[in-house]
Amino acid sequence: MNRRIRHLGLTMVFGCLFLSSSIIHARETNIGDQYPSVARSVRALGMGNAFLTMRGRRTTDMFYNPATLHDLKPSWRFSAFGNDVGFSQKLIPMVKDLFDLSDDLKNSATDDGDINVFKTFFNKHVGEFQSVDYALTLFSMGRKDWGVALLTDSRTTVSMRNRAFPNFELHTNSDGIVAIGRSIGLFYDDLVLGALVKGIYRFQLDKIVTIGDILGGELGSIIGFDQWKRAFGIGGDIGARYAIPILWSVNPVIAVTYQDVAHTRFFAGDSGIDKTRNSLNAAIGIHPRLGDYELSVEAGASQLTDKRDIWTRLHAGAELRFPTFAATTLSVRGGTNQGYPTGGFSLEWPVATLDFAFYGEEKGVVKRVGANYKYAAAFNFYF
Hints:
alpha+beta, 14-stranded antiparallel barrel, globular
């Protein structure tokens, strides 16, 4: 066996795991999907991923509830090359250990030595669950009741939760998305209905990589390009938001969305790509004005059509928006996502926004296992 080639292959696979988000998945692993399935918002994550009753401020808010398009201004607003990045709290120390692992393997003279080196690394990180998210909004435009967006959305997740065997699970999902949304207000705008159609070109990989795969030089057959699954799918979301005509001082609002109606199925490519399961979501919120300040508080549940632990469905949070000062508007947020704490803030200017969030999300698929704590940031331009 050529040790140089083997070590190069090991370095490449870990580079793919942590520095790339353009691979794919195919449901061998025990890694769940995210909510919503595409275009998660850093603003929403800061307030517990609760966003259904919120007023829309950006075109991409339609991926939570297409009814938010009714809140946009009458004139068209455009955005291009907006970046959203998220990564696990302990990802950077693991990446450092990966470089050390590569050096230790180079210094190992035998296969038994390689195995011991890898086991040492695995035992140090066993039980960890790491992920990297990256979204690029290539272009979006919106005006009252209309929205169009073209973006990419990628997520790479690595799990070493299986303590019995020295292997790891790799789940990557990368989408190119074009979406068109429409909303309409009824009954003096107390009721707003919205719909969203999205075309998705998806790449997926979902593999369990063992120490034998790494040391046996079989990485190409495990995660090589010929293993990538790719296909095109069309999905649809619908949403409704109703401002309850009572307690005007606190402005109570209820909302319901049904995402990926009838499941988003993929075709005209590799039929092995999983469908995106539909998700029924509901929330209630209050949105009082406190002088020049705007307060929003929301609590809700997602993925009500799935059989899962109630804690994994729950989202709640609050946002306080301060008056504009020196052309800058500050918003601060806090909440709980699937039972784990979240927080964040935004700075908004006439031509750009900066969002930051710290949040926990569930590592389990159908029941509560533990939190994966992550940082997320987004920067968007407008014109």
